[in-house]
Known about the structure:
Elements: H1 2-11, H2 13-42, E1 55-59, E2 62-64, E3 77-79, E4 86-87, H3 90-95, E5 100-106, E6 109-113, E7 120-125, E8 134-139, E9 147-151, H4 152-158, E10 165-170, E11 173-185, E12 195-198, H5 200-207, E13 212-213, E14 215-220, H6 226-236, E15 242-245, H7 251-254, H8 258-294, H9 296-304, H10 309-348, H11 363-387, H12 403-429, H13 435-452, H14 454-470, H15 475-486, H16 488-526, E16 531-534, H17 541-546, E17 551-566, E18 577-582, H18 584-590, E19 595-598, E20 607-611, H19 612-618, E21 625-629, E22 635-644, E23 653-656, H20 657-661, E24 671-676, H21 682-692, E25 700-703, H22 709-747, H23 749-757, H24 762-800, H25 809-835, H26 846-853
Parallel strand pairs: 7-12, 9-11, 18-23, 20-22
Antiparallel strand pairs: 1-14, 1-15, 2-3, 4-13, 5-14, 6-7, 6-10, 8-11, 9-12, 10-11, 16-24, 16-25, 17-18, 17-21, 17-24, 19-22, 20-23, 21-22
Amino acid sequence: MWRLALRTLSHRRGAFSAVLATVFAAAAIVAACAGLMAAGIQAAFPPERLAGAAVVVAGDPSYRLPDDDPRDDDAEWANLSETVRLSRSLLATVRAVPGVADAIGDVSIPVTMLGGDTPRATGHEWTSAGLLPYELRAGTAPATAGDVVLDAVLATRSGSHVGDRIQIVARGAVATFRVSGVVAPAAGRTATAAAMFFTPYDARWLSGHPDSVDAIAVVPVPGTGEQALADRVRATLRGQSAVTLTGDDRGLAEFAQARAGRENLITIAGLIGGTTLLVGMLVLVSTMKLLVEHRAPELTLLQAMGTPPRRVRLMMLGEVATISVVATAAGTVLGGHLGGQLFGHLVRDGVVPAALRFDPGWLPAALAAAVCLCTGLAAAFFPIWRAARPRPATALSSVPQDHGLDRARAALALICLGVVGTTICSAMVMIRSAAVSVACLAAIVVILGVAVVASRMTKAMSGLVGRAVRARPRTIGRLALLNSCARPFGMATAILPIMLATGISTANIYLQMTQADQVRQVRLEDLRADQVITGGFGPGLLGRVRSVPGVTAASELATSSGFVESPYDPWQSEHGWPLLGLTADGAAGVTDISLTAGTFTGLRGDSVALTRQHAQELGRGIGDPITLRLGDGAKVDLRVVALLADRPGGEMILLPATLLAAHTTAGSPTQILVRAAPGGDPRKLRADLVEATGRLPTLRVSDGVGPSTTAVEQGRTRAWINYLFTGVIIIFAGISVISAQAMGAGSRRREFRLQRLIGFTRGQILRMVGIEAVVVAMVGVVLGTAAVAPILIPFAMAVNGSPMPPGPAWVYLAVICSATLSALVATLSPVWAIIRPRTGEREGSPRGRAVIRA
Length: 854
């Protein structure tokens, strides 16, 4: 049977090329995703500045979500959104640990130099310069207040030398420093970020949190084991909100976006890899079913010769296994390069930090190859198992009947629709930030439910679409319709990938646009500003802005996320609640948020404002206490002073700007919202605001309010996932359509020759199959649209009150055109190859007819 399988492959190269392409594409994508996931799980962030520390202590960003049962060990965990700082008093505690030679507090201060090309850098205490280590190339270390040491790259870019005086902007304040020295990394060391070093006094003043450090670098006594030292430090700090890092994990304390980038990478790789396996399995099952249908006479002949079903199955499994091994090996090799290219694009777009090292090794590729190989064999097993037991009465028919299987498909479709209906009803009742994820999952389940009964729906849809064709008196259209209705299974095989591509692409793109529009609308409804000042602010800037003529209201703005710790909040997710900070005496002028109780002027000190529905869920009202866990892990007890009007998608918690900003990584508000007097000159107002801010290059005056940095980052990640998701679907849809139409054209070779013999021209045959391709595309688009309409319409209604999701219509038109074009190309190309003139043949010549007849 093995020899027979190899001979079968050599004579059916075209039929098995679809299996080869499907498994090859799946292996390449899954191998690339496996490499990305391995990089995210390993989270290799080699330290640079902190490389000289054997152990690094950082704030613990993990947070255990409150549960209604404190004894529950299965409570969910979340990651805090801001840098969790450590108390400076822990330095003495760590120094007292046996085996510790020194404990150095590390702080990172975003600074900008004025003049030259205004390079941005990060400021640190001079005590941490020896960890890389940095070596003095000129001058001396900072000894007195006002001294600064620049690294060689920063000094060259700014044109600064030892003894020069430079101006530095940090947290909106301008300070003058004297360059006391220039340093560079020691031989063999590199540092990607520009750095400058201050005295401990200046560093604490510039950071804004003098009693805290970002991390603690632990230098061991010579001869002390790294793991033993880490265990001692960990035992000493037990009970503190701190984590002890060793090896490449030390980079997590140095690079702020490392943890978020790792989660983004794992999420993208997991979703795309899982989707690839699912869609690839569906395409492979459909392709194998079509291949088995075309081989029904051959399999019947083998059984008539006395071949046992077991040997027939082994022969066909041997064919698939041979193809799968070759395709998986080639796809896995390509997947390694594809993963590297994809990782580079993710880094360039800011989805993954550049500090993350991509070195997955051979194990993820081997696991991906094994999974793809097993998935391919599993997908091919069921069609092969059914093919080995055809009934004699139906073996030679084009569509074997199996009423039990049809009933099972109908039951599975009903189960899918029932699950989706329940999910959508529950998700639409409470419009939360996770509703779009629920909607995407529901759309996929609906499409899969429609896919299992695609052949039945295809027959019904062909009749409906055929009415338009029957209206034309031409014979070509009628013949094309008859061909479509006579081949429901073949049509279903070609329609299924078009339906998947149309449905999933439309759902992903328009759900993403709906969510982005929701974020933008909520942001515009929450905040109203004619001019926005962006950057880090020092004290006194808000007062100068308010004194500018033409300014009627101004407020500082800070954004973050946090968790309700008390009372128990069953609705908060692992991402927490959006936190918005405004200044009390300016909030009313820069926002259109309606209040149902309380006033904005009470938003001072330890106060908070909740939406009315959220307050009801928590059982709180005006004057009641509430405890929040802010983004840096700080626990604050607040008092409710106002209730906000409810808006779909506008769930948030409002805090005083100074309170919230103190617990963010920036340490200060990031924007000042300015409301202008009616009828004022916008250009003059902007010029006056630039003057009021001191013309600092770190501050930017712009029109209107844009989405927050967090929303932009989350939107970028979601867009990457959706676009990759859509790309995977389109790849497999194209492979499936081409294979189905090519095999269908090959099985109709006698039909085309007969039509040529009775007088059909090549143009007429091409027009006939072109009409069939258009019918396939129309049915696939209609079914795909009908499958996602019950998801898109309720979601759009719940979000913006309109049944039409936001977004340009050309996106949907592009989907339709792509589906139609792919169906036409996949159908016409093989038919043209079959009926193309041979050497010496002319249209309508007797010789040509003789060649065809032969």
